[in-house]
Amino acid sequence: MLDDPATSGQLPDADPSTGDAVTPMPPTGSAPRRRGRPNVLTREQVVDAATVVANEDGLDRLSFRSLGARLGVAPMTVHRTIGGLDDLHAELVRRTVDEFADRFTWPDDWRDVVRVFATTFRDLLLRHPLVLESHSSRAPLASTESDAVVARVVDALRAEGLGTEEAMYTFFVVYDFVVGHTAVQVGRGDSEAGRPERHRLVAEMLGSHSYEARFTLGLDVLVAGIEARLPR
Amino acid sequence: MLDDPATSGQLPDADPSTGDAVTPMPPTGSAPRRRGRPNVLTREQVVDAATVVANEDGLDRLSFRSLGARLGVAPMTVHRTIGGLDDLHAELVRRTVDEFADRFTWPDDWRDVVRVFATTFRDLLLRHPLVLESHSSRAPLASTESDAVVARVVDALRAEGLGTEEAMYTFFVVYDFVVGHTAVQVGRGDSEAGRPERHRLVAEMLGSHSYEARFTLGLDVLVAGIEARLPR
DNA sequence: ACCTGAACACCGTTCAAGT
DNA sequence: ACCTGAACACCGTTCAAGT
Questions:
Q1: Strand C nucleotides within a 7 Å radius of protein CB atoms
Q2: Would you call B169 and A140 a contact, using CB atoms and an 8 Å cutoff?
Q3: I need a labelling partner for A217 at 20 to 30 A (CA). Which of A96, A174, B7, B168 fits?
Q4: Hey, are the CB atoms on A166 and B223 less than 8 Å from each other?
Q5: What Rg, from alpha-carbon coordinates, does chain B have?
């Protein structure tokens, strides 16, 4: 992790791989635009650096100014390379989600498919706050890769006799539950901080409370509910 | 709405109600601290103004500088009165949640209790983005008032034979689902913006999609799941 | 005591220069 | 062409001065 290639940009005046584009190369028209000569920065380098900053210093230390410093380049160069803050976030999310989407081994039983999806998705959101924050502004998940995951769960439900539309909405119940559960857990804050006069029952609830148990029971309820609604 | 008393602070040099505290009134020791003489601002005035700004100009226009301008007072006076940004948000959330908590009429059947809670809670979160953002950092909901709402739902579940702990976790499934559902809906963004090559099935899903139907079916699944797990 | 101007340490983004 | 310094329009918060 520490010798990640992305950290090389940290060097004060490192010459960032001018290796592969030597000729000026006039635009060939239809081809994907070749970069010009003094192009010091690629999108990928930016996203690499952003990943490192986000992991090492936290998401709130991530800015064009900090990225510029780390990459040895003017902040505005980073800005122009990636397009803007939203694009940077989108790129970061896409990368993380793609890694997540590649990690599945699907079981046979549809109940296990639902459970594996929910559990893995939960891990993703707990580990990557930015994905949680962007859960939404990019549709179900975000990428072409993750679409396959969604499709796999929906297919498992259709195989049990649900119509496409009902299977899709059923998937979304699980999806929405996981998003909400992790959002609440991540932002837990001062649950028991000496707030005045909480209701007796609620105080008791907050006392004996485990997010693990909460998630597990939630999943049980969802699976039971889905099962109860399957045809026949 | 437009002649809300809180907007009076908008006047350039309005003398903000010096009406009720005339005598210097030395601190009586144990009593809640009486405000000194030149106290130009109360917490309530700040929260009033903040509510107006948030509703009229949007949450992102809400700042100590903008509040100061509206109240005809230095930004730092607002800051010192309320304590800090987190306190301002907490106060705003508490007020909104309390209003919400007062609006319930509870049906008899436990299924309807769950549905009424979920539907009303959803309305609250959709209408008040700040509550959605703070859903978490303040525990289940936030206030003494809202504790009664939580307790009412949990009690309805206990009346069906669930133990306290299971009833509480069951409540949280509904809670988490609503939080997630609204979070996704609010941040929907560019769902169908020409992203490249989405999976066929997912594209189809995004086409015919209604958050209303998604919520309704979600609730159906939850209620069915809870019912399936009731004793006997 | 209470209020507040100025300063500190940040943001994203625009735009007109520099090479 | 590509890169970038300076400026614009903002933030929350600290702190020492003003009354």
A1: 1-6, 10-15
A2: no
A3: A96
A4: no
A5: 23
